[in-house]
Structures are given as structure tokens and as C-alpha cells.
Amino acid sequence: MLFDVRAVRFCASARMLAALVFILLRIQPGHGQTCTQGFDYDRRSRQCIDVDECRTLPDACRGDMRCVNQNGGYLCIPRAMYNQPYRPELPAPPQPLYPDSSAGVSDTFLPEPPRSVEPSYPRVVSTAQCLLGYALAADGTCNDIDECETNSHHCNPTQVCINTSGGYTCSCTEGYWLIGGQCQDIDECRYGYCQQLCANVPGSYSCSCNPGFVLNPDSRTCEDVDECDEKPCSHSCFNTYGSFMCSCEEGFELASDGTSCIDLDECSFSEFLCQYRCVNTAGSFSCICPPGYYVYEDGRSCEDFNECDTGNNTCTTAQVCFNFQGGYTCLDPLQCSRHYVEVSDNQCMCAAENPACRDKPFTILYRHMDLSSGRSVPTDIFQMQATTRYPGVFYIFQIKSGNEGREFYMRQTSNVSATLVLTRPIKGPKKLVLDLEMVTVNNVINFRGSSIIRLTIFVSEHPF
Ligand SMILES: [Ca+2]
Ligand SMILES: [Ca+2]
Ligand SMILES: [Ca+2]
Ligand SMILES: [Ca+2]
Question: Where is the signal peptide (predicted)?
Fold first, then answer.
């Protein structure tokens, strides 16, 4: 019986095994479709659908890795790749670069063939017919997925998505570059984009120039303005780098405005510029002289006008014209005093035989001279000399009259001569008459007589 029981049990076990196998055999064909790893069969659609491992697998990625589901697999991507590290690609001054989005910093984003992912990442298990970034078309070819169009990109709002073959690029617009995953304004001023003045603005910049310069068509370099084109100077203009300079012709000086020229008042420089008077003129000056003078060829001295030589006088034919500095006078014909007789046109004599002449000068000689006003002293101005010499005779020279102001002094220079010396300056115009006496003494015959030189001195008004 025991055997029977065993036999019965064996038979029962064999039946169960057969049933299990049957079930297995029945179930196996019941799938009807096999899916490769990473896909699950969807009965409704009767398709293999990708398993989202990121949702279904606990700890699909570990540590600081981020799970990204893929068709037929998944990727573990360092989270840092979603926040692009700071990658300054700084333009190197002084060679300025210009903002250009095409050459600017961009960031090629994730979807790349798995093999390009660094080996340390988990192996991507994918058996899809197309590479990542491509989709299988109905005709069996792989077509690029336009992530930008389908909005399946990971560019952040500050960035611009640019579709590429098999992927896409997150880029920044012109004037921005990618810093810390964000498109940030390029501070072009910091990198010397402008030659002179620079103003940074979001997404751009603007250059300007210092006064005296204009911005070139390149909008960044500055060029000197040739201000002289506008003729800002009264006289001459010299362009300089960044400015200009005016200069003036001789006789003018630059005014405080730096452009106009004003006449120099040469007369104020020195009172000795002209002998008499200085007259300022535009760009120059001239000297003038008082009446009776003309300006000498040196342009500053005054020269007496000789009215007697030129005939420019009012003297009658009977008169004698006498010229002096600054004027002239008409001398009347000689008229001798009482008892005197005219012996020449400038000399009168009182005859010795005439008793009336006993105490009078034997002769009176009329002479005229001119003298400059304020002439320096002492100075010799006139000479007297005896014309006859007798044995035992000596002469005394003296000023008999006209020297009340004591401007003169008679100095005897020899036995027979003397000099009239001016000892005090005389201010003109003035007419002086001096009687210069020569006393003749002859002790042998006990004779004493005198002769007079009546000297008329015309002192000019001016010291020239
Ligand atoms: Ca900027
Ligand atoms: Ca200039
Ligand atoms: Ca002047
Ligand atoms: Ca004169």
C-alpha cells in the first residue's frame, strides 16, 4: 500500500508538473510579442513601449547624477551639466573683439550619441534603431529631431535654442555670453571695445569720443576733428590732435577766447618807442611829431623841418629866415642903435672919434643860435675869440646882460678866446638875448674898450 500511496503521490506530482509545464507552454505563446530590454509590451497598442527607468527604478542614478530617460534606456548625467560651469572665453584686449552671437559662447546640450558620454557614466542600454536625437521615420530612415521646434530642449529662458543635426545648441544672442548657464550681458567697455569713451548697455554698447574727436564709421575708433575747416580763428589756424590752435599776425595777440586776435597796444610797451608821441593802430603803431617836425626815416625820431631851406616860410624878402628846432623866425633887417652905424649886415659900430661913443661898446655884433629845450648841462654852446692881437693887450670875456637866471657861464679858454657854457637846462620855447662882452685892456697906452656880441638864443619847445 505504501507503494501505492507513493505511486499515487508520484502520479499526482507528475500530473501537477505536466499541468505547470502546460500552463507555461500555454502562457509563453500567449505573449505573442517579445520586447528587448528597456521596453515593455503594451497590449492595447500592441507595441513595445520604453520603460521610464527614472520613474520605475529606485536609485536609478546615484550621488549627484541626474537620471534622464532615453528611448530604450536611460542616462545618468552629472547635474552640473544642467548648470553650465562658468567658462569665460574672454577676448584679449587690446585687440578688441566684437560681439557676435555666432562666435559667442554657446553650449552644445545633452542629446549626443551615448558613446560620446564619458566612460564613467553608466552604460546606456539602447537598442533603438536610431541614434539619440534622431527618430525613426515611417520609411525606416532616421531623421533629426528638431528639439527647438518640439520644445524638448533644455535651454533656459535666457538662451536661444539652435537645432543641430542629432542635437541642439543653446546659445546667447548678440551681446550676451553664457555665464553660469545664464546669458549675461557682455561688458564690452571692460574689454576695450571703444577707443575712447564707452557706455555699456544690455546686449550692446556704444562708443563715443572726447571733445575734438569724431566717431569713425566703425563706431568704435575716434578720429581727430580738423577744426580749422570751420575757420574758427581770426587769423591763422593749426590743427592739433584733439584740438586746434589759433595764432595771430604780427602786431596782434590772441584774445582770451583763444580764437580772436586783438591789436597789441605797442605804445603801452615803452614810452621810448617814439621820440615824441606814439599812436596805436590796428596791427601796428606809428610815431608822430609835433608841428615843425617830420618823422625821420627810422620811423620814430622827429626831424626839424627846415622852413628856410624849403621856402615854406612867411618871411619877406627884406627879412632873413632863421630856422631853429621846431620852427623858424624872420629876422628883420639890422637896425643899429643911436650913434651906431652899420658896418655889415650883422654888425654896428660906434666911431671912436665920436664923443658920444666914449662909454659905449666899440662894436655890436648880432648873432643868432638855437638851443634844444632841456639840453643837458654843462655844455659849451658858443665861442668868442679876439680877432686882433696887439702887444701888451689882454682880453676879458664876460656876460654883460641877459644872464639873470644864471643859466650861463663864461669860461676863458685862452688869452684871446672864451666859451659860453650852459650851466642850467632851459625849458623852451623861449627866446633869450645875451650880451657877451669882450673887454680889451692895453695898459701900455692906458686903453680900455669893449666889443659886444648880442647873441639871440631860440630855445625850442621840445628837447629835439
Ligand atoms: Ca553690453
Ligand atoms: Ca584737431
Ligand atoms: Ca597796434
Ligand atoms: Ca625848423
Answer: 1-32
